[in-house]
Design a protein that fits this description.
two-stranded antiparallel ribbon; alpha+beta; about 15% strand; three-stranded antiparallel beta sheet; flat; about 150 residues
Length: about 150
């Protein structure tokens, strides 16, 4: 079935080039360039399948450590979705280096944890990963001034 108006994500954008997202917080901004978190991202799907099996095993063993599971999940997000990231948020007055460990720490910090849920929603939205239509391109182009 072809849904009227639906445009598939562009595989080059979705899986290689990525899309940049900005998340302002009261502590500074977080910038993430990411791949699509969708069915076309096979690495993401497989990693989530393995992670869900891990969670199920832990549940069956009554071995639930939310912090460990959260850090493991954030590592999967970083490895399979994040192409690049940066932040203007400071830690002890110093800039935060864009490493996997710091991404996990920042996304699990209560001061910025809401960024993760918004980011995952954005990264799952196929409309962000499709080419712009001609009308959208015209709307985004700079128009000459009358002056």
């Amino acid at each position: 079935m072809q849904i009227d108006g639906y445009v598939k994500p562009d595989k080059e954008i979705a899986l290689h080039q990525g899309v940049s997202f900005e998340y302002p917080t009261k502590y500074g901004d977080v910038h993430i360039t990411a791949r699509l978190a969708g069915r076309d991202n096979v690495k993401w799907r497989l990693a989530m399948k393995v992670h869900n099996e891990y969670l199920e095993r832990r549940k069956n063993l009554d071995s639930l450590d939310d912090k460990e599971s959260e850090r493991r999940f954030l590592g999967i997000v970083y490895e399979n979705l994040v192409i690049d990231w940066s932040t203007t948020i400071k830690s002890d007055g110093a800039e935060i280096e864009a490493t996997k460990e710091n991404f996990v720490e920042l996304m699990s910090n209560p001061a910025t944890s809401n960024v993760l849920s918004v980011f995952l929603r954005d990264a799952s939205d196929e409309t962000h990963f499709r080419p712009l239509s001609d009308e959208e391109m015209e709307g985004n182009s700079l128009k000459p001034s009358d002056g």
